[in-house]
Amino acid sequence: MILGSGPVRIGQGIEFDACCVQAIAGVRAQGREAVMLNCNPETVSTDWDAADRLYFEPLTLEEALDVITREGAEGAVAQFGGQTPLKLAKGLAAAGVRILGTPPEAIDLAEDRQRFSAVLKRLGLRQPACEAVVALDEAKNAAARLGTRCWCDPRTCWGGRGWKSCTGRRARGVLGARGARGTRSIPVLIDRFLERAVEIDVDALSDGATW
After folding, report:
1. Which of 29, 100, 121, 128 could bond to 192 as cystine, CB 3.0-4.6 Å?
2. Which value, to the nearest 10 degrees, does the dihedral of the CA atoms of residues 74, 79, 80, 82 take?
3. HEC string of the chain?
4. Vertex 190: Cα angle to 184 and 194 (nearest 5)
5. Would you state the pLDDT for residue 177?
């Protein structure tokens, strides 16, 4: 079963649905039936002929487990639909569902920017300086150390949702709103903002042995 992207919201890219469609094609190319769980009528993965069977239901843990049980599915593919299915992977695994492809631990390592920063440091790769905070005072002190302009965003997030650029007087209001929501288990991340930087996306795929 492939978990789709769900309702498309601001901050969530439509490319996630395109990835789900490719996942459907890949499953069917292996001679297996592809079951899609998704609930957005405006995406290709919910076309009547995209998958062998479509469950037009909310992307919740309960619905996903119901469909998997009904279908007797070999497992679930969670890594192509964006933040919504990514959040379901750990719960599905805990319920005994086989997560096909990227395991929940690897998903968490990639999307938890604090943990991923530790990986970059271990590999000797550079990144903008950042600090995790949970309170306004911590955020203000971090911003002072990092520079006059910084990014303020959730520690665990894909797609840019909830990110804010903070500079000058505007920083206090933004950091106050964001910092007040932080907890020790889910802090907010403050990054140094790079002026006139060039952003390059790099996608890396591996079968566990080769890249």
Report:
1. 128
2. 130
3. CEECCCCCCCCCCCHHHHHHHHHHHHHHHCCCCCEEEECCCCCHHHCCCCCCEEEECCCCHHHHHHHHHHHCCCCEECCCCCHHHHHHHHHHHHCCCCECCCCHHHHHHHHEHHHHHHHHHHHCCCCCCEEEECCHHHHHHHHHHHCCEEEEEECECCCCCCCEEEECCHHHHHHHHHHCCCCCCCCEEEEECCCCCCCCCCCCCCCCCCC
4. 160
5. 47
Quick: pLDDT tens for 99-124: 998 899 998 888 777 788 888 889 89
∠ CA 202-85-36, nearest 5°, is 105
CA nearest neighbour of 3 among 96, 107, 84: 84
73 is written with which tokens? Answer: 């599915």
Instruction: State in Å, rounded, how far the first CA of the chain is from the last one.
Output: 26
